[in-house]
């Protein structure tokens, strides 16, 4: 099933009903992605699946993953390249005045959210996506990288 994810959600309701949200968010709904000079495919989208519920300690959590294909400029050969980005999501909801366990902080990234608050999903997923961008994108397989092709041609010519 492919659907677009809504921006505004009521996380506590989704947690109480153990709901799942699955779908796409367009890059055009993510102002920081769309204005990022590194991102070449402005028409892309990110796919997310999110499960809401409580863990075995009763902590209210949102868990899942995101996936996107982002075109960056390869830092070695300066050609555009398709990079598959995937990242796990593990968040826990806390009231603004709650102090959560150090141990739980290792498992989940806490987000402040009071009982009546809504969460802005596009913004949240945008944060996760930006955090998973490579620092210096380069063709993973050297054979795909133009700079490698050029240097191997040079090597051939030299022999
Ligand atoms: Zn390259």
TrEMBL record:
<comment type="similarity">
    <text>Belongs to the DUF177 domain family.</text>
</comment>
<keyword id="KW-0690">Ribosome biogenesis</keyword>
<dbReference type="Pfam" id="PF02620">
    <property type="entry name" value="YceD"/>
</dbReference>
<dbReference type="InterPro" id="IPR039255">
    <property type="entry name" value="YceD_bac"/>
</dbReference>
<dbReference type="InterPro" id="IPR003772">
    <property type="entry name" value="YceD"/>
</dbReference>
<dbReference type="GO" id="GO:0042254">
    <property type="term" value="P:ribosome biogenesis"/>
</dbReference>
<dbReference type="GO" id="GO:0005829">
    <property type="term" value="C:cytosol"/>
</dbReference>
<comment type="function">
    <text>Plays a role in synthesis, processing and/or stability of 23S rRNA.</text>
</comment>
<protein>
    <recommendedName>
        <fullName>Large ribosomal RNA subunit accumulation protein YceD</fullName>
    </recommendedName>
</protein>
């Amino acid at each position: 099933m492919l659907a677009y994810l809504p921006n505004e959600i009521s996380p506590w309701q989704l947690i109480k009903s153990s709901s799942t949200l699955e779908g796409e968010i367009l890059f055009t709904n993510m102002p920081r992605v769309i204005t990022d000079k590194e991102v070449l495919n402005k028409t892309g989208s990110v796919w997310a699946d999110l499960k809401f519920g409580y863990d075995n300690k009763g902590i209210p959590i949102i868990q899942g993953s995101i996936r996107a294909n982002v075109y960056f400029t390869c830092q070695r050969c300066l050609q555009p390249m398709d990079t598959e980005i995937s990242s796990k999501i593990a968040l826990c909801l806390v009231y603004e005045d709650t102090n959560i366990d150090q141990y739980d902080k290792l498992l989940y990234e806490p987000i402040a959210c009071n009982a009546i608050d809504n969460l802005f999903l596009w913004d949240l997923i945008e944060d996760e996506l930006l955090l998973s961008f490579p620092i210096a994108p380069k063709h993973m397989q050297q054979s795909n990288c133009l700079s490698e092709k050029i240097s191997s041609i040079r090597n051939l010519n030299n022999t």
